[in-house]
Amino acid sequence: MAVLRWCRDTRIDWHYIAPGKPMQNAFVESFNGSFRDELLNETPLSPPAEAREKTGAWKEDYNRNRPRSSFGNLTPQDFAMKSRLGTKAA
């Protein structure tokens, strides 16, 4: 309900994904597949503190070190730096 209230307050339209149409949210489906294949299926996660540590390390790698095709095969950090340099040059 908090998300729906926020959408209403910020005047952002909320759209549900149609049942059986995961490609309407391909980004999340791709992330879920990577998370499952690379961490959940490969790593025993117990006790909870160890699960948090391993999940945090995977998240850090995913968010900072992996090249993204949508960024021209740059890592998010490299893309951000290149974008900042391009903005300063303009």
Molecular structure report:
The protein is an all-alpha fold. It has 4 helices and no strands. The longest helix is centred in the middle third of the chain and has 17 residues, at 48-64. The relative contact order is 0.06. The mean pLDDT is 88.
Give average pLDDT, whole number.
Answer: 88
Radius of gyration: 18 Å
Q: What string, H for helix and E for strand, traces the elements in order?
A: HHHH
Share in β-strands? under 5%
User: End-to-end span in angstroms?
Assistant: 42 Å
- Count every helix, treating DSSP H or I runs of 4 or more residues as helices: 4
Instruction: Please give the number of β-strands.
Output: 0
Oligomer: single chain
The secondary-structure class comes to: mainly alpha
Q: Which descriptor suits the 3D outline? A: extended
Largest sheet: none
Estimated helix fraction: 55-70%
**Low confidence ranges:** none
Features:
mainly alpha; 0% strand; 4 helices; 90 residues
Present the secondary structure layout.
Elements: H1 2-10, H2 26-40, H3 48-64, H4 76-89
Give a quick precis of the structure.
With 90 residues, this protein is an all-alpha fold. It contains four helices and no strands. The chain has helices at residues 2-10, 26-40, 48-64, 76-89.
